[in-house]
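ARCHIVE CARD
SHELF: 3
SLOT: left
DATA:
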Amino acid sequence: MASGVKKRSSFAVWWPLGFALLLVGLLVSERFVFPPGLDSFTEQREMMDTIVSITLFAGDEGEAVSAFESAFSQMEDVVAIASIYDSQAEAAQLNAAARIDNPSFELVELLDAAMRLSEASRGAFDVTIEPLLALWQYDPSAERQFWELDLEEQQAAIDEAKRFVGADRIHLRENPTAIELDPGTSIDLGGIAKGYVVDRGIEALLRAGIDHALVDAGGDIAVVGGKPDGALWEISLRDPEGDAEPVARFALRDGAIATSGNYLRFYDPDREIGHILDPRTGFSAQAASSATVIATTCTEADALATAVFVLGPVEGLAVINGLEGVEAMVLRYDDPTEIVRSAGLDRYEIQKKDGT
């Protein structure tokens, strides 16, 4: 009898504890397998002369606000480094002195990527294009603007400026770290900095514990994680002719997309000299109406979209098809309704209902 009573007593003591542990285990496993619902949050801020928008999924508003602050702060830090118009920015100081000692990691990484992508694009993308860009800028003190000069005068000035253009004129030094420019060379990071800023925003969101997000800086877009329900991020490509119907739509889980075109900004009042120049000729690029690139990072997508726009559909897609993990869509210059696609673009493009 005593033995039977002892066994029942032991069971009575341990059964509640075992049940509690089982219940905790079930709750933990349920939270792991079925995570709590995530809500969508969006915030916009003005940056880099455009609107930067972040959409993310978070468990509550507090988590979202903290992530927004981390991402925007990181992006603003990069903007403060990469500007050539703010005399306090490292890029501006580099242009002024042709050398900067102990540069930030961000500026070194930006220029390293710029040099690599210049080589990959056969010189169609080049951040040392600033001496050529300066020729076309409006000069309030000039009797005639550069676009008003005859072709012979323009060509002479361009030939002189081209002496100082070329990614090989940038030198990244080590021990101690420094960046040097050859005499007469200056940089403009406008064709790559926005994409790099977007990438830094995505990295900040991931550090903040955000697994699903989209960062859009005026059409330079990076996404991560798809949406919590498994859906992909959908991105539309606007028509350069201004039609309401998008030219194409793309679906991405992770990666980046950027578009370059000369249909928004011009140097001259007649809107004939587009703001994207061909660094090889010094004149406005007229090989495409727009170029869209999908890549792993927005830094790559931004720079390569500019390069493909400069190169045009034939030479541009030859470059893209030779790069791993990169796809592109190009609208021809003479007929923007004619679309040329890289070999693997269909992995991302959403087909229209009519199958086109």
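SLOT: right
DATA:
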Amino acid sequence: MSKITLEQIKVPIRVEMENFERKFRDSMRTKVSLLDRIMTYIVKRKGKQIRPMLVFLSAGVCGEITEKTYRGAVLVELLHTATLIHDDVVDDSAERRGFFSINALWKNKIAVLVGDYLLSRGLLLAVDNGDYPLLQVSSNAVKTMSEGELLQLEKARRMNFNEDVYFDIIRMKTASLIASCCAMGARSVLDNDDMVEKMRLFGEYVGIAFQIKDDLFDYGNDDTGKPSGSDIKEKKLTLPLIHALGNADKSERKRIIKLIKNYKDDNKELKMLFDFVKINGGIGYSEKMMAQYQGKAFDILRTFPESVYRKSLEDLVVYTTSRRS
């Protein structure tokens, strides 16, 4: 089976994505020179743009792409970009997508204000065009993502994660934004709550599978695009580790938790933790759960009529769980 690429997935929406880039840049224009320089920097270091792709493809699955769909895609990308900038401040991260982060170049105060500016531009885009249903979708995503971040911080202090808590956190932190992209696309072309909810749930399942894949990168090698052991260094309990801890006896579990709490970037200890996770079935179990959520996403998607948009969404689901970065 040949490897699926983003360029192949984009084929049905190639024109829309080209138009989207122009509209996205226009949405960030400002007369403040410092802010305009930062906006230009953001545009030049754009990521894979999976989220606006989800908006357009979901709209195509449900109906005919319209100007409202473009506004939905821009709104989602403004929201996503703002949350990434704020995340970098919270995490004190100096890099994003291989470039210096906004806070690394312009310091935290400016980075927070830039994130706020992007959020406000998204809100105004929706309000000025009367896109209140789209605004509701995006506002719910922001609320849920914030709750997820705070829940993770609360639980991380005591390291009392279990699998249910883990799935609650990733559903809120990661899957809610991807779910909102799919709901946004559907809502932009139809006024049917059941269909919008169906696309939202599809996106939620994709988002959960996406995050589990991201967790597995911690146990990969150098070509994954994510530093090996980064979650452990940040003392994050992800699915592979949670499952392994659940399979260990009480004394072993206590020893591993103590090791994580006191971890000081020691390669020997890191290997010990990796071996513990693999021996106790954490990797295999996580791969199985990722496949289950991928399957749930496919089940929903295949209730829609066959089309080039549906095929690209199916390919995008495969891409998110087979990507190397």
